[in-house]
Backbone:
């Protein structure tokens, strides 16, 4: 018999209303466009992480160890003891709702479980059940839930719909940082082998070769050689950086995205030109050619392991201090955790700019200076000749990356560089920048391809603010100081605000920088004609 | 009274009912947020819905449909195209307007002329729904493009080396 067709009036009666109280029970719907592929076993094996196997988040059976519940709960007990902040965050939320609509994923999906308070509640309800007397006794009434397979799947789903951006924490009267709750949730999930391929691939590669893509030393060098040829085409100057050079004053480390991806490579060309112009005594390393640390998106231990390669490379090369490129989470990891993990790095010296003599007091402990701090200090001391008119075709706005903004308070330096290298700079609305900046929607390892819809949802509030300055001021360039931003804001703009391009701040600098002995510039670092030089 | 004048008189009521009907399709917590927060940057979805339905209303009542209106229509469909809903749900919001207008005009004395006008207005709403469907499909398509473009950008240097991209800047 053919299926019964609905009558027209039945068709018109579609109920679009979601059921009430639906969020209290675990729903483990894994929906297309939301999730990233599960990690391949070889990546987990490479770094000795538990439960390597083939699995797909949409499979009914996630192939967990028999005692998965004990592993999860023991892991939780251990972390409740180890991290006071986690324990506190599990206890003190008063459900005031101040954070509710501050998450870009909630604003983009409209899914209440993406409200930070409910995201945390998914884990908190399990905490209540197993770690509080009231939850043990009263169960549901006290907001407690059993850890069932469905609840586990739900925690997984929403832990990977949070970019750990910390925007919610800015608005919480108690300073509850849902990002930290997500971080712990992901750690617990990792105890069961529940991570994504997009995160574990870079982790395994970094562990083996020192960078996310697994680029071998000769590939890194030949990529940079390509850029040097381009710089010569643009400026007539042959830049000759050194690699793995012992005894250099400074080790330079940038995210590997700057070495192979577009538009990151233009930012990298900016660094190369700047260092050449300064005659800086620095070296690249092909062993620790990665500022990024996807270990941070798996577990504290893995982040710690991967971060150490930069220090050990600094030790091997006997440099005095480390200069870091435009990156987001590299800085969060370094600024917030490094000293506790490996510090103090006594074999390095407190960073002093060899050009201006400025002591970077803030980096006394970590020995690592952000390039935005380094370059703005140069400009302030008038050490660079700049011609901002070369960027006159650009109407620029600046996206604060969550990590450099909320993770370490870098607000002024990139703006100072932009204002000195461009004549047209416009801020986005106040509640979307600086410490209240909206995430790109793809951070914390969520920048995969298979969850593109989710990324577009999460980036919607950011894009909306860009659209506003585009309409108002004709903005056509979104500048930033983060490699993940450079990669992910581009599709975000192509979807929401076509016509807006994306660049690192040092690309703008590279274009404006007047180098000694350069030929007349007619093209920019992308090979496009400079304003007024179209016919040249 | 001419249909357009009648509708203009009831504009505020119709838009409010329409907005509320759209919010009904969201979870109750989300609907509340969308209703209460008016800051276009703090709550961009709410603004997208408002601007879009105002634009459509202007369009079907013969008022000027500006470039800004067309942009807000696009924005709304971009949002629908990435939300977790079926294609029919994505454009269903346009049909809500039909029901609301019928209901709002149910007490009007129907002249034959008014009735005919109403029929053509409904056709116009149908056309708008079709336009929305086109936009929806276009933006779904765009998602696939974004994925392939992103892969190309990430492998930019590899493509250059394998001569899939102009190799040196001079050749470009
Ligand atoms: S703002 Fe803080 S206390 Fe209030 S609901 Fe959110 S996490 Fe809980
Ligand atoms: S940390 Fe960011 S992504 Fe996670 S819940 Fe808070 S606002 Fe949302």
Residues:
């Amino acid at each position: 018999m053919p299926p019964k067709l609905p009558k027209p009036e039945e068709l018109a009666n579609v109920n679009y209303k979601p059921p009430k109280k639906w969020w209290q029970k675990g729903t483990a719907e894994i929906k297309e466009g939301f999730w990233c592929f599960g990690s391949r076993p070889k990546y987990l094996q490479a770094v000795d992480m538990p439960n390597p196997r083939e699995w797909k988040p949409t499979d009914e059976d996630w192939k967990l160890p028999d005692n998965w519940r004990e592993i999860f709960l023991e892991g939780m007990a251990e972390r409740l003891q180890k991290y006071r902040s986690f324990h506190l965050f599990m206890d003190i939320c008063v459900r005031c709702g101040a954070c509710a609509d501050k998450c870009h994923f909630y604003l983009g999906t409209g899914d209440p479980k993406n409200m930070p308070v409910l995201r945390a509640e998914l884990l908190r309800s399990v905490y209540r059940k197993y770690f509080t007397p009231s939850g043990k006794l009263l169960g549901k009434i006290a907001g407690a839930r059993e850890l069932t397979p469905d609840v586990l799947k739900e925690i997984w789903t929403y832990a990977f719909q949070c970019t750990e951006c910390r925007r919610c924490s800015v608005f919480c009267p108690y300073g509850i940082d849902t990002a930290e709750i997500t971080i712990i949730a992901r750690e617990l999930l990792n105890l069961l082998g529940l991570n994504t391929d997009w995160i574990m691939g870079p982790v395994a590669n970094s562990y083996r070769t020192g960078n996310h893509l697994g680029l071998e030393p000769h590939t890194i060098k030949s990529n940079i050689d390509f850029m040097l040829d381009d710089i010569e085409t643009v400026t007539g100057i042959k830049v000759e950086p050194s690699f793995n050079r012992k005894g250099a004053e400074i080790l330079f480390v940038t995210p590997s995205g700057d070495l192979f991806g577009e538009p990151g490579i233009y930012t990298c060309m900016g660094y190369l030109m700047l260092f050449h112009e300064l005659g800086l005594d620095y070296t690249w390393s092909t062993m620790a050619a990665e500022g990024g640390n996807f270990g941070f998106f798996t577990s504290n231990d893995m982040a710690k392991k991967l971060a150490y390669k930069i220090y050990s490379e600094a030790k091997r090369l006997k440099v005095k201090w480390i200069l870091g490129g435009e990156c987001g989470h590299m800085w969060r990891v370094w600024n917030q955790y490094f000293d506790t993990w490996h510090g103090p790095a006594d074999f390095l010296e407190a960073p002093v700019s060899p050009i201006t003599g400025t002591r970077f007091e803030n980096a006394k402990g970590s020995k690592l200076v952000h390039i935005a701090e380094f370059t703005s200090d140069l400009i302030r001391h008038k050490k660079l000749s700049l011609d901002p008119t070369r960027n006159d075709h650009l109407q620029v706005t600046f996206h604060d990356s969550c990590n450099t903004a909320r993770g370490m308070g870098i607000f002024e330096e990139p703006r100072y560089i932009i204002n000195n290298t461009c004549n047209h700079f416009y801020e986005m609305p106040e509640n979307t920048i600086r410490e209240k900046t909206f995430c790109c929607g793809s951070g914390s390892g969520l920048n995969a391809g298979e969850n593109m819809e989710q990324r577009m949802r999460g980036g919607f509030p950011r894009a909306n603010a860009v659209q506003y300055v585009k309409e108002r001021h004709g903005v056509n360039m979104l500048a930033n100081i983060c490699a993940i931003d450079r990669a992910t804001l581009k599709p975000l703009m192509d979807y929401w605000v076509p016509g807006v391009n994306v660049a690192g701040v040092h690309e703008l600098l590279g274009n404006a920088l007047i180098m000694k002995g350069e030929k007349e510039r007619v093209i920019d670092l992308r090979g496009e004609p400079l304003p007024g030089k179209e016919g040249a | 009274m001419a249909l357009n004048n009648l509708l203009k008189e009831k504009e505020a009521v119709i838009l409010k009912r329409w907005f509320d009907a759209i919010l009904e399709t969201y979870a109750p917590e989300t609907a509340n947020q969308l209703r209460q927060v008016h800051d276009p940057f703090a709550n961009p979805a709410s603004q997208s819905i408002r601007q879009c339905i105002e634009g459509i209303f202007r369009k079907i009542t013969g008022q000027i449909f500006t470039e800004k209106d067309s942009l807000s229509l696009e924005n709304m469909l971009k949002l629908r195209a990435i939300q977790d809903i079926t294609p029919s749900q994505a454009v269903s919001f346009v049909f809500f307007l039909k029901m609301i207008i019928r209901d709002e005009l149910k007490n009007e004395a129907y002249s034959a002329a008014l009735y005919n006008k109403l029929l053509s207005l409904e056709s116009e709403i149908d056309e708008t729904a079709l336009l929305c469907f086109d936009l929806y499909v276009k933006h779904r398509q765009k998602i696939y493009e974004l994925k392939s473009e992103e892969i190309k950008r990430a492998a930019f240097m590899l493509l250059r080396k394998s001569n899939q991209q102009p190799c040196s800047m001079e050749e470009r």
In short: Chain A touches chain B through 56 residues (CB under 8 Å). Chain A has two domains: 8-30+50-194, 203-512. The first strand of chain A starts at residue 250 and ends at 253. The domain at 8-30+50-194 of chain A is CATH 1.10.1060 (Fumarate Reductase Iron-sulfur Protein; Chain B, domain 2).
